[in-house]
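Tokens in:
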């Protein structure tokens, strides 16, 4: 069966490093940390007092008061990133077949703020149920994809993916497959998350997943460092316009990169811990390379999952070593979570954007906050510690792994026409 080519024709981002793609990318390559003391609520009684929040955000800058009341922050973030990606792509709705334009969106948790607020109001009331009529429509995961399709009139494939931290990468993979199978011309895809609230921080604290380095938030996310002690919670949204190659060419679209392969797998091991030998991570990269019909030697950069957890970082590097062999020494590897924190279900989307721009610009964003080598890692591996590096990147891979053992990898290559 002949598969169609898929290209990236638009980007949109709302992140702890910037409220649009340019700000996000500029701060990535500067090595800026997005972590700081939490401002949304008093976190002083929590084990972790900091996170990577979206900064300078006021929903009234983007929505009227009536509209904002109907949208959980995760859906607000989604619509803002999609507004940018729609404009960046140059799409004109009256000039495309809207029945072949879709939205596939990922989130790990969805409307957690709405759920918390509604339950708190009930508990603190007199026992009379006075739930908002918007409670369910604000909370459910799929509502972001629904709002996006309604806004732009896209009537093609429309649903949401949920696989914890791999959610938005799975959304990209599904979008990629729908387009290359000829079932859609273009799809807005990505993910959003808004879990920097009491329930989010408290829940991850209880599972001992978060760093508790309260005396130095900006250096708390330390992927591959000997003293890493957990991830930093982040929030935001990332969106990509994936489009069939001929459709993009015929309308004169600006093309960032070509998406050429993807892989999915499961650890089948533990609800939160990675496979100790990186089995699922090994297989997902193998599948992505096979799908792209390229060899490990064709990859120049990997944007790794790299959460700054003691076990996760080790298992991922074990997997990369198995797949890439001696070529691992020719790779640049970096974890942009060292700067953005972990955006959970939106992580794959913003890291795919970082990979796309790294390939297009020939610039590798760094893994910041490296202070002490971990003897678990071969010192000859280039983790792009602390300093941005420039090089030609023929193809880049982005990995995301989620609680439950869900693994997803995508590959983008330099666009050559």
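Residues out:
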């Amino acid at each position: 069966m002949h598969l169609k080519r898929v290209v990236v024709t638009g980007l949109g981002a709302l992140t702890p490093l910037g409220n649009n793609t340019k700000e996000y990318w500029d701060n990535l390559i500067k090595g800026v940390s997005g972590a700081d003391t939490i401002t949304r609520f008093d976190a002083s009684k929590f084990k972790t007092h900091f996170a990577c929040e979206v900064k300078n955000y006021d929903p009234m800058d983007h929505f009227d008061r009536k509209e904002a009341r109907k949208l959980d922050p995760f859906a607000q973030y989604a619509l803002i990133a999609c507004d940018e990606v729609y404009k960046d792509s140059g799409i004109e709705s009256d000039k495309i077949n809207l029945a072949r334009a879709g939205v596939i969106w990922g989130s790990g948790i969805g409307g957690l703020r709405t759920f918390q607020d509604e339950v708190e109001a009930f508990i603190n009331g007199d026992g009379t149920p006075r739930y908002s009529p918007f409670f369910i429509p604000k909370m459910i995961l799929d509502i972001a994809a629904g709002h996006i399709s309604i806004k732009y009139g896209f009537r093609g494939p429309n649903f949401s993916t949920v696989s914890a931290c791999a959610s938005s990468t799975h959304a990209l993979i599904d979008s990629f497959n729908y387009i290359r199978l000829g079932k859609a011309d273009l799809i807005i895809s990505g993910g959003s998350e808004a879990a920097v609230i009491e329930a989010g921080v408290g829940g991850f604290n209880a599972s001992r997943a978060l760093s508790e380095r309260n005396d130095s938030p900006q250096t708390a996310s330390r992927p591959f460092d000997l003293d890493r002690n957990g991830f930093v919670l982040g929030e935001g949204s990332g969106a990509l316009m994936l489009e069939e190659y001929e459709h993009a060419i015929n309308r004169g679209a600006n093309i960032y990169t070509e998406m050429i392969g993807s892989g999915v797998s499961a650890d089948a091991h533990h609800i939160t811990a990675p496979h100790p030998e990186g089995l699922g991570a090994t297989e997902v990269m193998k599948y992505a390379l096979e799908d792209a019909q390229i060899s490990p030697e064709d990859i120049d950069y990997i944007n790794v999952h790299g959460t700054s957890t003691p076990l996760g970082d080790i298992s991922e590097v074990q997997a990369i070593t198995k797949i890439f062999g001696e070529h691992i020494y020719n790779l640049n590897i970096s974890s942009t979570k060292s700067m953005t924190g972990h955006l959970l279900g939106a992580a794959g989307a913003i890291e795919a954007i970082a990979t796309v721009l790294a390939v297009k610009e020939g610039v590798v964003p760094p893994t910041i906050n490296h202070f002490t080598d971990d003897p678990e890692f071969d010192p000859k591996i280039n983790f792009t510690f602390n300093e941005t590096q420039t090089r030609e990147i023929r193809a880049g891979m982005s990995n995301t792994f989620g609680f439950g053992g869900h693994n997803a990898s995508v590959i983008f290559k330099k666009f050559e026409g």
